[in-house]
């Protein structure tokens, strides 16, 4: 009996024209990819753009020559603008923690090219519907599972500390880029004093939270739909060791979608219960924990509003600024619930030309 013929090779997908502003870098890229193609079973002529993010990194997708083998992802991270070392380090930490993250298959460290396995094309953001929270809850349960795994692996001294200096640098982005450069409002007088007083309170609150590994951008846009039981995690290169409240605040106060308060509370309670069961250092009182999450969220919202303004004004990426009204709404709604943050509400009202809310506030005077 003769052996059956081998399966026909898959027809390679045509390559797209990829814009390179540096012809020399383009040539180095082609040489590197061609050099690893045999060992990694790649079809280097099928490279096409997969995505780009808010940084200077770009991602390409490339086919393999073995039928049934998944595509691969190539990261282009120019070393004069992006340091790839943290990405490789955190990818290893996530693997050790049992979190699904891209595996680094090859790395040209001097030139900033990485070959990664492909976690797919569909993000959690692609499939959730804010109008249907019940249908989205299972995905958030998977996100909580990944977050708990990540935090349980935490060890001090491994990742950079999310310390006072970093917290203050992040907050400074808001007055410099959003208020001063985007809104054109001078940072002086009462406005400056109110910001400084509010920022001091926010930093002190956040430093009071126990420290764990912090992804720092843990939201549906960076969570990939995988085999239906575990989400893949992307965009983790800025991970730090800091407040346990940060990633759940990031997950539920998203840069690109908003949930009703009832759903935010529900998922935050689910996380808190899972964290307590796992032995993570969350406050035993949910009210105190939720307050800390809200104040951590303020830190993130102020930082991101500043970053989005900077992306527009400095980096020529205006699409991000379209989402700043969501962050301003987060900032105002949260600050309005705490009497100590009334000065911050007044700053927002002055900058945005809005009127003060009437209603109840709580917290320490």
Number of helices: 11
> Which segments are poorly predicted (pLDDT under 50) over 5 or more consecutive residues?
1-12, 357-365
Please report the total strand number as a whole number.
9
Instruction: Calculate the mean pLDDT score and round it.
Output: 90
- Helix proportion: 40-55%
- Neighbour order of strands in the largest sheet: 1-2-3-5-4
Strand content of the residues, in percent?
5-15%
> What general outline do the C-alpha atoms trace?
globular
Largest sheet: 5 strands, antiparallel
Head-to-tail CA distance between termini: 88 Å
Gyration radius, to the nearest Å?
23 Å
Succession of helices and strands: HEEEHEEHHHHEEEEHHHHH
SSE-based structural type: alpha+beta
